[in-house]
Each structure stands twice: as C-alpha cells, then as structure tokens.
Structures
1.
Amino acid sequence: MVEKIQQLLAEIDAFRVASRAEIEQFRVNYLGKKGVITSLFEEFKHVPVEAKKAVGQALNELKTKTREKLDKMNANFEENDEPRERVDLSKPGFPARPGSRHPLSLVRNEILDIFARMGFSVSEGPEIEDDWHNFSALNFPEEHPARDMQDTFFIRKSPDILLHTHTSSVQVRDMENHSLPLRLVTPGRVFRNEAISARAHCIFHQIEALYIDKDVSFADLRQTLDFFAREFFGPETRVRLRPSFFPFTEPSAEMDVSCSLCGGKGCNVCKGTGWLEIMGCGLVDPNVLDLNGIDKEIYSGFALGMGVERVAMLKHGIRDLRLFFENDVRFLEQFTAAGF
Ligand code: DAH
C-alpha cells in the first residue's frame, strides 16, 4: 500500500492543469467523497496493526501534499486569470474641457487689434540680442545704468550677448529690415534681473509701437494714445502725459490713464491719485534716426512701449502680477467664464 501511495504522490506532483474545470476535476478525483485518497483511508482500516504506523504516515503525507497542490493551482489561476475589463462601447465619453487663451494673450491680441485698426502691422524680433540692438543703436550712453549687470541678464560678455530688456530693441531691427514709411507694433517677452513681487517679475511682456514717416508730430502720438486708451479702457477714459526721459525719444513722456477701477476718484490700486501710469512714449530721438541710417531732415517718428501685465492688471482689477505666471486654472478660468 505504501508503494501505491508513493506512486500517487509522484502522479499528483506532476499534475498540470489548463483550466479551472481541470482543477475541480483534480479535487473530485483525489479528495472527493469517492476520490482515490478517501478510499485509501477506507482501506486503511484493514491494514494489519504492525503496518499501520508506516501506512498511516504515508497516507497523511499524501493528503497534505494533495491539499497543498490544490491550493497552489487555485492561487496560480487567480493571478493569471484576472477577469478582463469589459469595455462598454455604448457609454458616453468623458466631456472634453476646452482650454482657453491665457489672459495675457487675450490682452495682447486686443491691443494689437486696436493698433491694426490704425494701420500698424505686427513685427517681431529675437529675445537674445547684442548690445547694439538693445542699447547702442537706441542712443544709450556707454555708462547708462540700464547696461549694468543688475538689470540685464547677460549671456556672454565682450562682445555682449543678452536677453533683451525691452521690445525697443526690435525698433532697431525694424529700421534695418523695413523700408520707410513704417508703422509697426511689436509684442514680446522681455527679461530684467529684478526681484519678483506683486508688481514686478524678471520676465514680463511689452508691446512697442514705432511710426516713422515724413512730418510725424507729437500731435500724431497724442491722437494715437487717446484712441488706444478709449478703445482699450472704455470711452470715458482720460489720458494725461507727464514729461519723462528715455535715451531714444526726445521729447519723452509717460502716459497715465484715469483709473478705470474707481473712475478717477481714487482707490488703492491708483494709490488715491485717480491716475495710473501705463506706458513710456515720445518722438524718436534724431540721434536714433542717425544711428540707424535714416535721414532726420526728412523723417520723424514716434515710439511707445507698454507693459502687457500692467495694462491687463488695470483692465481686470488683478492685484498680483505673479498670478499670470502661476497658471492656476481657478485664475485662468475666470477669463473664459467672463467671455473674454
Ligand atoms: N523701453 C522702455 C522701457 O522698457 C519703454 C519705452 C519708453 C518704449 C518710451 C518706447 C518709448 O518706445 O518711446 O522702459
């Protein structure tokens, strides 16, 4: 009998199954009520007393091994035979949430559109510039503080290669590449080594405009500024110019608009003054025309440059410039919801 048990052990050990039905078959054959092992236990009753110990041990071993084998086969099947995911092709899909334009892009496009209506075409220039285009050709004196390491991100020194600190550098490229008269508006990203705060960032956006023709006067500049301010901030907006200085314009001015948030009465955004500064402007300095090979006896022009974040903040009552760069959907979403 021990021999028979040994044979069965080998048989069970070598057993291989290919399906759950075969595992069940195995269980019934060996461990079922009428199974081989069960009937061996029946036979055990008739085993002579002196053989009982050896046969009993072998029989118990057979039963344990068979159980183990059964558990192992079941476990293997559970691992390998995971129920396949059912795909219900008739289910509706997930709704696609449409993206929206960034508020800075919306404001930039609106400004470009207003200038397009006045006959300005769009020009663009590189963000990486040399000293000539960013400073020298714009009449910056050699020792001007804006050339200082503190403001400018230099990529290389002597000859200087830098990240342009203003879109005015594109004025120079425009004068090189376009024939006169020219009337161009330039959006761009600019870089300055400044501490990041609610009102300043080391990367921001500007829009520059340049108009050069015969007989361009300050009155043309003034008309352009008035038109822009009313179109962009609303028909009630008033404009004021304050004398200022820029190396590339003469005379130079800074332009304020009446605060669109309080209607000019004074609030914490305009610091109680009722006015907000939005851009620098002026008549192109004759030196700049000279430096760029334009006859200053025949031609004159005006230029202006504004910060896009600045005007976007004023228009939409945004109090922290950093919000534009964080890309928090809760912030960005508001510009879609409002239908901008
Ligand atoms: N480039 C100046 C700046 O970044 C802004 C500016 C002032 C641009 C006067 C102009 C201008 O075109 O005429 O601060």
2.
Amino acid sequence: MVSKGNEKMKKQSLKIYLDYAASTPVLREVKRVMEPYFSDTFGNPGSLHSFGQEAIAAIDAARETIAKAIHAEFREVIFTSGATEANNLALRGVVFGTREWESGIRGRESGINLPAQACLRRQAGNKELGGRRKGSITRGFRPKVIVSAIEHESVLDTAYALEKDGVEVAVLPVDKRGIVDLKKLETMLDERTVLVSVMYVNNEIGSVQPISKISEVIRNFRNAKFQTLNAKSIAESTMLKAHQPTIRPFYIGHLDFGFAGEAYPLLHVDAAQAFEYFKCDVGRLGVDLMTLSSQKIYGPKGAGALFVKNQESGIKGQESGIRNKELGVKRDGAIIHNSKFLIPFVTGGGQEFGFRSGTENVPAIVGFGNAAMLAEKGRAKHAKQVTEVRNYFWRELKKIYPQASMNGDNELRIGNKESGIMAPHIINAYFPTEFAGDLLVKMDMAGIAASSGSACSARSFVPSHVLEALGLPSERIRGSIRFSFGVPTTRQEIREAVRRIKKLLGE
Ligand code: PMP
C-alpha cells in the first residue's frame, strides 16, 4: 500500500522529460519488432545466402513503408545513420554532383561521356580529384548553395565546410516569427544556384516553413531559366551541329552563364522535426531531397533517410519488392541510382543504390520503418494531443510567471496549413529574470529536462543562431529555454513541472 506521504515523495522524485525535440523514447512496439534483428536475423544484407536475404528483405520492407508514407518510389529512399548524415549527403552530394556534370560536359566536348569520364578518374586513383580539392572543388564553375539562417548545424556547418572548398553560400533570412522571406529567395536565386536547403520545422522555435511555396518559387525560376537557356541552346546547337552531332536538345553547358543544368536549383528539405506532425508528401511539397530521422519519431537512434528524387523514372511503385541492388545501373563496380544529381561521399560496397556504402544497420532501419508507420497512422491524434499539453504548459507557466514570453510566433496556432503556424511540440520561452544556463541546471537538479539552443554555461555564452536570426537581442537570447513535448507528456507532468519551476523562480 502506498501511503499519502509516499505518494507525495514519488511525485516529487518523478523525472519530467520536456525535451522531445532532442530525442524521443523508442516505442515498446518498435523495440519488439527490432528484437529479432540483433541475434536471430543477423546476416549481412549484402550476403547471397538466406541469412543475408532475410536481412535485405527486412530493409526493403522498411524502405517500402517509408516510401509509401512520403509518396515516393521505393528506390528514392536512401537509409543513412541519421538526419546529420542525410543532410551531409544532400549538400555534399549535390555539390559534388555538379562537378560530375561539369566534367561530363567537358567529357562530352572531348568525346568522352560522363560515366566513362568518372570511371577513368576513379581508375586514376582519384588523383585528379584530390588535386582539385586543394583549390576549388570545381574549376571554371562556382556553385552556389542557399541555406536558411535557422537550419540545423548539420546543414549550416556542412555548407560552411563547402564554402572553404570554393562553393558560394548564401544565407536566406527569416522574419521575427522564424519564417523565410520568399521575396528575398526570389532575388537570391541565380544561374549558379545548385541547391536551396530549407528545413520544414525548426528544432529550436518550432516555426513551420511554407515548403510548397518555396518549391513554387524555385520551379518558376527553373522554368524561366530553361526557356532562356533553351533559346540559347537552339542558337548554339545550330552553330555546333557540324562538330557535335550528339549535342543535347537543351543547354547544359557553361558559356557566359557559368554552369546551368536545367534541373537546378534543387530543393532540399530537412524534415527531421516535421514527420511526426506534418504530412511529408514529397510530390505535394515539391521537394527533390528530403531528410528524415528515426529518433524524432519514437524510433531508434542510428537511422535516418534521405529522399532522393529519381530523375529518370516517372513510374511509381513499380519497383516495390525488388532488392535494392538490382535497381541501380552497375557501372565500374558501383551501383548508380537513376538520380544524376547526387554523388556519394561514403563509397565502398555500393549499398543504398550506391549513395551510401557500408553494411546497413538492420535493427535500426527495421525500427525506423515501424516507427514511421505508427507515426503516419497516429499523426492527427498525436498533433492534437501534444498541442493540447503544450498549450496547457504555457497557460500554467504564465499563471506563475506572467513575464514569460514566447520566441518566434507568439500565437499558439497549429493546423495542417503550411505557413504561419507553429509545430505542436515546441515552445521557446523567454524568462526575463533568468539566465538560461543557470535555470537549465537548476531545472535538471529538480528533475526537469529541457534545453537551450545556445551553448551556454555560467562562464561562456554562445548565442543560438536561430534566436539571433529572429533579430532578438542577446539579453533575450540569454534568458531563453526550449521546452518540447511528446506523446507521453501528461497534464499531471505539466502541473508538476510548473510547480517545480515556480519554486526555482522563487515566485
Ligand atoms: N535536423 C534537425 C531539424 C534536427 O532537429 C536534428 C536533431 N536535433 C538533426 C537534423 C540532426 O539529427 P541527428 O543528430 O539525429 O543526426
């Protein structure tokens, strides 16, 4: 029997997790589905024998589930170790892909086609690549990448690493709600822009970007560019026909425009924080690349995916059930996906259609597939439930500490529309009387887990780039904390958390 006193003690010692944007617990059901893949079905998915075949079948089933959830083709889902790697693959892969394009153009000019040239370079021990990397990763052409100011570090730092290698990086600003400026994007796009990377839901403030509007801006730009280039191409091909009978019917080369593939710029969306609450239909959103993460949707860590639009096939679902290695085109020992725009940075055995070599993390991928299926099924219910506890937290917090205010959009709106709304699970709150670093430590000691985008401690303070991008002054950034909520969060936990916060604040 639990006495009243005991119950009170139990309640007081209860740990309260309000950091679901950092990671979510693996659902029991997901764990159960993963279990056999640690010791029973442990084969290497690349092996021909039945152990391997069972493992690859499990991976393909997970791929099928995820492809279906995002309305993609089976082969368009590339498993990675998580969102960071998927973001790296998107940025580095596209930029390196433009280099291949450029070489292809040069190759074609010299009578050698693109894959043949790439093979020759590989056979030459990548000497040429290594040499070129010392200066710029491309020779005549300088690719440009546009990233929003509030991207996750795995996008921003990758972009800055590429910048050191000669890529131009342009930062797309956001307004005070944390929404990107579409007009500004229009003015930033140019013929050298190969990639635009904008996240769907921001991990620090929960702002939701108007992805299909962004893709419309990019599509309009591509169409206008195509028309201009096509006109140029007709003129040029007439001129060059005598020398190059195989010239493409449209312009891809780099004359006075610099590099100008007709399919660029591509749009990459980091949807790691979005999938749990927002439908991520790649067709409706109009994305070319999209990042997903398992650990944000009650799946295990160590799995993520990059959706890579298959540029050559218009046939949906045709490949379901076919083993992934049978799908690509085998060239010079590497399995090459039909997307011409992405070059892998992890090379080796050619797994994941050649985009990500290395033996797959079978249990994690199986868990990810299962978590994605459950997230898809429960999305509407979860969004409603989590919004409810999030709003309850805010009302309760304001009762004990009326000075608190929200960063980003300060209206608790939520819906299935795309823009001007906040994700259900995040509140970034400003405590004017507090220093976030200290309050987080005190809260942790009181059993409440929350976080801050800022790397802050009593001695040093590195302000959050997201809050800075909103134009917030540094005192405000110093006093801001992110609370994030999840499906397991209860009203009782919220009441208890607010009671403890009240005590800490001395209110
Ligand atoms: N993108 C976003 C939007 C995220 O929130 C995170 C995780 N905080 C990542 C990328 C990186 O995810 P991971 O650490 O699992 O690779």
